[in-house]
Design a protein that fits this description.
The complex is a heterodimer of chains A (771) and B (485). Chain A is built from 33 helices and six strands. By secondary structure, chain A is mainly α. In chain A, α8 packs parallel to α10 (191-201), α15 packs across α16 (329-337) and α31 (728-734) packs across α32. The longest helix of chain A is centred in the middle third of the chain and has 24 residues, at 390-413. In chain A, 48% of the residues are buried. Chain B has helices spanning 8-22, 26-36, 72-75, 80-84, 92-95, 134-138, 156-165, 175-183, 246-267, 271-293, 300-306, 316-328, 350-371, 443-453, and strands at 60-67, 119-122, 127-130, 143-150, 193-199, 226-227, 333-339, 378-383, 387-388, 406-407, 411-416, 424-426, 428-429, 436-438, 441-442, 463-465, 468-470. Chain B has one domain: Alkaline Phosphatase, subunit A (3-Layer(aba) Sandwich). Chain B starts with 7 loop residues before the first helix and ends in a 15-residue tail after the last strand. The chains are: A mainly alpha (771), B alpha/beta (485).
Chain lengths: 771, 485
């Protein structure tokens, strides 16, 4: 906010931007009593609407004449009984804020709608002085901002850094040494662009992009609450990764997840997609009232859709009109009404509450049809047995029974995805007083927030219509909110820093033209996700070096001006994947049931009062990508930190720095075993100490160490070697951590010494960060 | 305590950072004290030893934050008038011009609600405490009840943020991180700022504990609160891997520090120094945390004092005992957060559980600190983000669903120890508990007072960020002299 203030021409006689400067002041100081919330409104006065604020009768604002404008006069009134906001409100306008209001009125009091509620338009990219720098139109927007402040962009990051950055960003894994070598050797001008295309075609891309979608969708493998029963929503999770990989247009991606059961050509796949709205927590406690549960689920569905697609804090309107945005309480229940037509009930005893779809894999499907056939044949054969042949009848009955039991066992093993499906008879929806399920008020019909674009003409008043409205070209939010989240993946902070709130209280984007350019282009390309990602990562903005001088860091600590490349700590799941990949342990199997890697003992037991026991998997399951790790909702995997808790929808970025994270990457079995295997890898693949240090460093960081760094590591190696040659038993212990086999041809002390070096490398700040 | 050498690599960047940050505030003073001791082993970056602005009464703080907003009119603020007016509409004069949460709809015409449990005057001091809190009642003579608290925010997260960071919007440094920054740590072995959370069993109104409640905001990230886990092991992954001993690990971290320092020169990113500081803390915690969490050394008398849940991981009682152990070991700011106080419709049901789960242990903590001689320089604060309406939410004929809505205009917080006057009721609300009547204490005043007790002038503890000197109390705050010894 301060940064914005500093950049704005407050002190010259220009009209302040209504939306950026005036509206936030009105919102903070006036709306609580003169805003959208009818219940809290004082003196029947609204200052959130132009027709009431700029009314002609008994005017509050006289355009051009602040001194005659009641609004301005009251803001600086000397009498406590007259001043606004009143002293009791607890907040007073300061002089610069009053000056904004004064100038706004002096320059004619132009009104504008909140920026995010106005549809972004395709605009020609701005002209800049340095035409050599932009590689993508988006760069022109960034450069224009920098040039206006006399700032030069940073030079391009060196090749190796850039390759590591983009490979981590697009696949969540570091590049292989062969990929580094090929890229470094490739001097052709389009080598980087071809690398991006290669990465976008890698199936790892879908897994990487899926993670944040699973966070937003509150995906987990259990139901939550005390019982925390297991569910099998993972075919939905796999569908998400597949959808990203095959570049399903984002409008279809949206349509299927919200209404894949209602589209004219619905398939099993589009029905699985509707599992999005079934990822909410299910309360299976005995004493719960089913209807109360059911209403909770509806709240969750409506709020999740509002956050993910619209970036609106709709949860505020569950009990009252929104305090700042024009979102009446009634709109909340109208949105909720779209979800009220399904056959979902509030029962929670069965962890897979209907409607469900059984999703057999190919083996299960063929076994099932074979068994069904066998049962049919056995029954037919039994029918042909003479009635007095008891022995044969008994045998046949037993056979049928056994077959049916097999079939039942098979059916049980087939995952069932909870999906959306409408009940034959629609339910009525009511405004619920203070959100209480048993306090119905006025009846409402399905409808979209009145402050946004109109519901498409002729669209059905159900989830299908809602989905079409979200992806309609007139919708001002869906594209912006989406590109903002995608941008955040790569730059660590959104163009709107509050991805969950695009309302009046959310952050105004510093570079709205840039956001709008991305949003309208995204829509214009048919919601082409890979193209959006490609545009971002091939831009000059993205390709800048992240190195920063003290002065420019002081000026812009969070890199909001984009005068340098992104540098921030990798998400915890990516740290684990990186460790598995560099050590060679990673098993790149796609999809399937969740796995249970190493975890400290007793975590589940303690959280569930002994009801759930963690049985760690063996073999390949220990080395799968983290996206496949079993997510118990009430505790979450212990190797994950700074992540959405996956209980309700969360699109926020979490990034902290605590000693607990250091303990994880230093001591967790996964990381120690990765260090041990990385050590083995260089011991087997290379010869001298120097060469091995170089190789190990390159495996982890895509660059060789400089002489200073190499010297530190060599000295360290000598010390560790000396230590372990004296303590051979300790060496043996260290190189036995983890369940993967070790090459016994390597002597334990040597292996242990290198394991320590590998552990150091895996804990370097450079390794933990994307640079 | 001799310092491990690897921290020394990080003092330089931090000091440089502080030079930028310091401006005219405490940062510069801290810098002076650090430069004076250059090359010696003692000071942590940010330490102010010997340079305090004023004499300190408290050395450490335990904040028992009651998340969800306890009902002042049912627990501490006795209003006989409420019983007299029970069932009558709220007088318009009491609510005129006030801003209320509209969870319960318009305020006009709401019915007044008598306190659910009887009140009595307690101890020699005669402070009022209701029967909801029998243990707190017994230690009333140790406590200072500030009954004239008021705040600006009407919703939980903004109000909690205001209470803990001085601003409603997340992103400012929280109190604990200000202390860590301003006063440094008393120990190298444990975080200067530790956080523990708990929630009453079976509550229907659990708020989320957002990590911005213990964020360091724009202060260097090593000042952020370290959240200890609820389980029997407060910190996971504490043990070095098999075959790695302490010396080996220390050598490894030295190498790591040296390599990171090289990288910091290249990248210019001060977060690298912060990360290294966390690695150092991790190393220290490997020894100190198991000892911290080992409650076997506590006597049965002590354990009994905290109540039946004291050994149950994740209970408020256990966290209270842990808080005492933390401050004993030099932790500067312990922030316990207990959720479930949001009695919109559960005054006659869940409020009893809330009190059962917190009352005994809160009182035990004060007594325990006292008997160990720690109360004199440990400030204990108990309270929530706002109070609850003296009028009812829901149907007055449905006693089972009685509730009270959010109420920012008057509420109660109690404090003890650390230079606070014991056995006092400070300030008052009006006869309905609706508005402050005498000696109002705003959140920023409370913060200024807490800082004062720690020997810090709240106007001088500043950090320059994006061209402005920020402080915990923003541009407000007056020390509440009347609560000081």
């Amino acid at each position: 906010m301060l940064l914005i203030a500093a950049l704005l021409p407050i002190l010259c006689n220009q009209s302040p931007s209504f939306d950026r400067e005036v509206l936030p002041i009105l919102s903070d100081f006036c709306f609580p009593c003169h805003g959208p919330d009818a219940q809290a409104r004082k003196a029947s006065l609204r200052l959130d609407l132009p027709e009431t604020t700029l009314r002609k009768n008994d005017p509050l604002v006289v355009p051009g004449k602040p001194e005659e404008s009641e609004l301005f006069i009251r803001m600086g009134h000397a009498e406590p009984s007259k001043i606004m906001p009143p002293p009791k409100f607890g907040k007073t306008l300061n002089a610069p804020q009053r000056e904004v209001i004064r100038k706004w009125i002096a320059t004619g009091a132009p009104w504008a709608r909140h920026w995010a509620f106005v549809n972004p338009q395709i605009a020609p990219p701005p002209t800049v002085s340095d035409n050599g720098w932009p590689k993508q139109p988006l760069d022109r927007h960034v450069l224009k901002g920098l040039e206006s402040k006399g700032i030069k962009p940073s030079p391009e990051a060196d090749k190796a850094t850039l390759l590591r950055r983009v490979t981590l960003d697009l696949t969540g894994l570091p590049p292989t040494p062969a990929e580094v070598a090929a890229f470094m050797a490739d001097k052709s001008p389009d080598s980087y662009d071809r690398t991006v295309d290669r990465l976008l075609a890698n199936p790892r891309y879908g897994e990487r992009m899926a993670w944040d979608w699973l966070d937003a969708a509150r995906y987990a493998d259990t139901n939550g609450y005390q019982g925390d029963g297991e569910r099998t929503m993972w075919p939905w999770r796999d569908w998400v990764a597949k959808a990203f990989n095959r570049n399903l247009p984002y409008d279809t991606f949206t349509l299927w997840q919200i209404a894949g059961d209602l589209i004219p050509d619905a398939t099993d796949e589009s029905r699985i997609a509707t599992g999005f709205n079934r990822n909410y927590m299910i309360n299976g406690e005995g004493g719960r009232i089913a209807e109360e549960n059911r209403i909770d689920y509806l709240f969750d569905q409506a709020e999740t859709v509002a956050t993910v697609w619209l970036g609106l804090t709709f949860n505020c309107c569950r009990c009252h009109d929104h305090k700042f945005d024009s979102l009446p309480n009634r709109d909340y229940y109208r949105l909720m009404a779209f979800f009220n037509g399904t056959s979902i009930d509030g029962g929670g005893g069965n962890p897979q509450t209907p409607p469900i779809l059984a999703v057999p894999d190919t083996n299960q499907a063929s076994s099932r049809s074979a068994l069904n056939k066998a049962v049919m044949e056995a029954e037919k054969a039994a029918g042909a047995i003479p009635k007095d042949d008891n022995k044969k009848i008994d045998a046949a009955t037993a056979k049928i029974k056994a077959l049916k039991e097999d079939l039942e066992r098979l059916e049980k093993s087939i995952p069932k995805v909870m999906i959306m499906a409408d009940a034959p008879k629609p339910r009525k929806t009511f405004i619920l007083k203070t959100g209480l399920y048993n306090q119905p008020g006025e009846e409402v019909t399905p409808g979209v927030p009145s402050v946004l674009n109109l519901f498409p003409a002729g669209a059905p008043a159900n989830r299908l219509g809602l989905a079409r409205w979200l992806i309609a070209p007139e919708n001002p939010l869906t594209a912006r909110v989406t590109v903002n989240r995608v941008w955040t993946l790569f730059f660590g902070i959104g163009l709107v820093k509050t991805p969950e709130d695009f309302g009046v209280q959310g952050e105004r984007p510093l570079q709205q033209e840039l956001l709008d350019h991305l949003a309208s282009t995204f829509r214009g390309t048919g919601w082409n996700m890979k193209q959006l990602v490609r545009t971002i990562v091939t831009s000059s903005t993205y390709r800048q070096s992240s190195q920063v001088s003290a002065a420019s860091r002081e000026r812009d600590p969070d890199n909001r001006l984009l005068a340098r490349g992104p540098r921030f700590r990798l998400p915890s799941w990516m740290l684990r994947d990186q460790a598995l990949a560099t050590s060679g342990l990673l098993i790149e199997k796609v999809g399937g049931p969740p796995v249970k890697p190493y975890q400290p003992e007793g975590i589940w037991e303690e959280a569930t009062f002994g009801n759930k026991k963690y049985v760690q998997d063996k073999g390949d399951a220990l080395y799968r990508r983290t996206i496949y790790t079993f997510w118990r909702r009430i505790v979450g995997p212990t190797e994950i930190f700074d992540n959405a808790p996956r209980q309700v929808c969360s699109v926020k970025v979490y990034r902290t720095n605590t000693p607990l994270q250091a303990l994880l990457t230093l001591n967790d079995t996964t990381y120690v075993e990765a260090a041990r295997c990385l050590a083995q890898r260089v011991l087997l693949e290379s010869g001298t100490d120097e060469a091995r240090i170089r190789l190990m460093h390159s495996l982890v960081l895509c660059r060789e160490p400089n002489s200073q760094e190499a010297a530190i590591m060599l000295a360290s190696l000598k010390r560790h070697r000396q230590h372990f040659s004296m303590f051979k038993n300790e060496a043996e212990k260290l190189v036995s951590v983890g369940e993967s086999e070790r090459d016994l041809s390597i002597l334990a002390p040597e292996h242990a010494a290198w394991t320590m070096i590998a552990s150091t490398l895996l804990n370097l700040d450079e390794t933990l960060n994307k640079e | 305590m001799t310092r491990t050498p690897f921290i020394d690599n990080n003092i330089m960047p931090d000091r440089r950072n502080m030079l930028h940050a310091g401006g005219t505030g405490i940062g510069l003073a801290a810098l002076g004290s650090m430069l004076a001791k250059e090359g010696r082993s003692a000071p942590l970056p940010g330490t102010l030893t010997g340079n305090l602005h004023q004499g300190s009464r408290a050395k450490r703080v335990i904040y028992l934050f009651q998340n969800g907003a306890p009902t002042h009119v049912d627990l501490f603020d006795y209003k006989p008038k409420l019983a007299q007016m029970h069932g009558q509409p709220v007088p318009e004069s009491a609510i005129a011009g006030k801003r209320f949460s509209t969870m319960s709809g318009g305020v006009k015409g709401k019915l007044m609600l008598a306190p659910v449990e009887p009140f009595h005057q307690r101890g020699k001091s005669g402070s009022w405490v209701s029967n909801f809190l029998p243990y707190t009642a017994r230690i009333a003579d140790e406590l200072c009840f500030v009954r004239s608290m008021h705040t600006d925010a009407v919703n939980h997260a903004p109000a909690i943020s205001l209470m803990l960071s001085g601003a409603q919007i997340p992103g400012r440094p929280t109190m604990g991180s200000w202390f860590s920054y301003g006063l440094g740590a008393e120990t190298d072995n444990l975080p200067a700022f530790a956080v523990m959370t708990s929630i009453s069993k079976g509550t229907s109104c659990g708020q989320i504990f957002y990590d911005f409640y213990w964020s360091s905001g724009f202060l260097p990230s090593r000042h952020q609160g370290v959240k200890l886990r609820n389980g029997s092991e407060p910190v996971l992954y504490l043990s070095d891997p098999p075959g790695v001993d302490r010396n080996l690990r220390k050598n490894q971290l030295n190498d790591l520090a040296a390599l990171n320092a090289i990288r910091q020169q290249t990248t210019g990113d001060p977060e690298i120094a912060a990360r290294m500081a966390q690695y150092e803390m991790a190393f220290q915690m490997q020894a100190s945390v198991p000892e911290l969490a080992d409650l076997r050394t506590e006597s049965k008398t002590t354990l009994d004092m905290y109540g039946p849940d004291v050994l149950e991981p994740g209970s408020f009682a256990r966290n209270c005992l842990m808080a005492r152990r933390l401050v004993e070991r030099g932790c500067r700011f312990v922030q316990l957060m207990h959720a479930g106080w949001d009695q919109h419709n559960s005054l006659t049901t869940e409020l009893y559980n809330q009190c059962r789960d917190t009352d005994q242990a809160s009182a035990a903590l004060v007594l325990d600190l006292k008997q160990r001689g720690l109360l004199d320089d440990t400030l204990v604060i108990w309270g929530g983000e706002f109070g609850r309406t003296p009028f009812i939410q829901n149907d007055i004929n449905d006693r089972k669903r009685w509730g009270r809505d959010h109420h920012p205009h008057a509420y109660t917080v109690w404090m003890a120890g650390g230079g606070i006057k014991p056995g006092v009721q400070y300030g008052s609300s009006d006869e309905l508990g609706m508005n402050v009547a005498e000696q109002p204490v705003h959140i920023h005043d409370l913060q200024a007072t807490i800082l004062h007790l720690l020997g810090i002038d709240h106007e001088r503890l500043t950090y320059k960020f994006q061209g402005r000197d920020f402080r915990l109390t923003d541009v407000h705050g007056k020390v509440v002299k009347g609560v000081l010894v």
